[in-house]
Design a protein that fits this description.
The chain is α+β, with helices and mostly antiparallel strands. It has one domain: Ribonuclease H-like superfamily/Ribonuclease H (Nucleotidyltransferase, domain 5). Helices cover 37% and strands 18% of the residues. It contains 5 helices and 5 strands, in the order E-E-E-H-E-H-E-H-H-H. This is Integrase catalytic region. One of its GO terms (biological process) is DNA integration. It comes from Streptomyces bingchenggensis (strain BCW-1).
C-alpha cells in the first residue's frame, strides 16, 4: 500500500490538494479527499476514514509507503501503527521509492487534469473520480492485462479517454 498527496491548480488560480491510497498488488486507487488547506489533522482523519472503509481488509496490509511531505505528520503514522501497519517513509527527494503512487499521479495529470480546465472542488472531484474509475477498469501490463477490478479485458475494450473527457470537460 502507498499513499501520496498531489496538487491540482484550477482555472481561477486556486490550488487543491488530493490525498489518495493505492494498493501495490491490485493497483486499486482509493481517493480520500480534496482540500485547499491540508493540515496534519485533516490528513490523519482521512487515514482513519480510509481504514474504516477497508474494514477487515485492513488486516491484510503489512506496510504503507509514504513520502516525507510536510503535511504528513506523526498523527498520520500513529493511525496506521495502531492498526499494526508498518509505515515506511521514503528518503528525502527519492520519488522512485514510492514509484507506484508517483506513477499514478503522473498518469492522472497527463490523462485527465492537464487536459481539463478545473473550475473548483466539485469539478475536481468529478474529474479525478472519473479518471480513477477509468484507471480501475482499464487493463494493466503489470497485472497481466487484467484490470484492478479483476476482470480480463481486451486493451481496446476499455472506454476511450477522449469520450469521458468530453463528458466532464464542463461542470
Amino acid at each position: 500500500m502507498a499513499t501520496d498527496l498531489f496538487h491540482v491548480d484550477t482555472v481561477f488560480l486556486r490550488r487543491w490538494f488530493v490525498l489518495f491510497f493505492i494498493d501495490h498488488g491490485t493497483r486499486r486507487v482509493h481517493l480520500t479527499g480534496a482540500t485547499r488547506n491540508p493540515t496534519g489533522l485533516w490528513i490523519a482523519q482521512q487515514a482513519r476514514n480510509y481504514l474504516m472503509d477497508l474494514g477487515d481488509r485492513a488486516e491484510s496490509i503489512k506496510f504503507l509507503i509514504r513520502d516525507r511531505g510536510a503535511y504528513i505528520t506523526d498523527s498520520f503514522d500513529a493511525v496506521f501503527q495502531a492498526a499494526c501497519i508498518r509505515v515506511v517513509p521514503t528518503l528525502p527527494a527519492v520519488p522512485r521509492m514510492n514509484a507506484i503512487a508517483e506513477r499514478w499521479i503522473g498518469s492522472c495529470r497527463r490523462e485527465a487534469t492537464d487536459r481539463v480546465l478545473i473550475t473548483g472542488e466539485r469539478h475536481l472531484r468529478l474529474v479525478i473520480g472519473e479518471y480513477a474509475g477509468h484507471y480501475r477498469h482499464r487493463p494493466h501490463r503489470s497485472l497481466g492485462q487484467r484490470a484492478p477490478d479483476g476482470r480480463i479485458r481486451h486493451p481496446q475494450a476499455s472506454r476511450p479517454m477522449k469520450s469521458w473527457l468530453k463528458e466532464i470537460a464542463l461542470p
